[in-house]
Amino acid sequence: MKELGEGGYGRVLLAKDKITGQRMALKTMDKNRTSQRSFLQEFCVSYFLSSHPNIIGCNGIAFTTIDYFVFAQELAPVGDLFSMITPYGIPEDSVKRCALQISNALEFISEKGLVHMDLKPENILVFDQDCHFIKITDFGLAKVRGTVITSRCGSKTYMAPELRDMTITDGLVVDGSLDVWAFGVTIYCLLLGEYPWQVAMPEDEGYRGFVDWQNNFHMDNPPEAWRKISTGIRRMFGVILAIDFSKRSKSTEILKYMNESWKEEIPDAITGQEDEDPIKSSSVQSEVTSISHLNTSQRSVTNKSLSYFLTTDTSVSQSEMTPLPQKDDMEESTDHIR
Questions:
Q1: What is the set of active-site residues?
Q2: CA–CA gap between residue 226 and residue 64 (Å, rounded)
Q3: At residue 295, what are phi and psi to the nearest 5 degrees?
Q4: What pTM was computed for the model?
Q5: Residues annotated in the binding site for ATP, as ranges?
Q6: Which of 78, 130, 164, 192 has its Cα between 20 and 30 A from that of 84?
Q7: Where does the record place Polar residues bias (predicted)?
Q8: What is the rounded CA–CA span in Å between residue 301 and residue 322?
Q9: Which of 198, 168, 204, 195 has the alpha carbon at shortest distance from 333?
Q10: Which tens digit of pLDDT belongs to each residue from 140-173?
Q11: Residues within the annotated binding site?
Q12: Which segments within 97-141 are labelled E, that is strand?
């Protein structure tokens, strides 16, 4: 029907089944840039994980044309999460809803022995403007946990320090902690509408300040970039963004903080809003979406906590929010697996 987007791999097209009328997204991959093995791997991983409510649906349709490999996915009517981020982030309740759903999906991916490797707002699709229903997509870089890689892959701003510091000689064993780091950076972007750093390397001033803070942790004296986040939530970031990956928590760590305020209040004079602060929490309904995939530790959180942030609303209104200035750059290198 029309083109929805274009990237280095190919295009995403809107299509409709002539018999049923069902609309879907067709992901096309240029054969000059994608091997058949890579195509089949992404298709199979997507199909394997698609039963989860917070992972994009994949209906098993795949085919080739002269120039492209193609497979069909569920259509997300609003677009990706990146396009919804304003200069002040998104409302706190929406951030919490996103965090719960992403955490749920990451636990499921981990339970299946996989690592996404490229989690970021651009790869999270949205089904309603208030983020009651979101889904992770794009498993083109996904790896089996325990795989040894010898070159970097993914998006540099969301890349964990151990991946940035990896050497070809030593390689790196792929682990779910890589996704948890990207999850932490994603939450920061959603909360504040900006990146905490451009790349997790000592040369980056923002990252260097974060490392110094974590090595000499004083909750009341964080770097400037972290003062917009409430005191208790800084502790949450300290464990999901632990520089030592062996000390990094699981994504479910965020469940302990659902009843706390995540943002410091910003005066109206700063935001330029007199009647309504655009980053204040929006009201939400109190119905729970499916939590059947939550593990035992997740269920220890009260139903009241979960129901406050999750709803079953799946309206399809299109967001008109202003995006971040630019999308994150991808690493161009290709993985070598042994």
A1: 118
A2: 48
A3: -85, 180
A4: 0.80
A5: 27
A6: 164
A7: 312-321
A8: 34
A9: 168
A10: 999 999 999 988 888 999 999 999 988 777 889 9
A11: 27
A12: 114-115, 124-126, 134-136
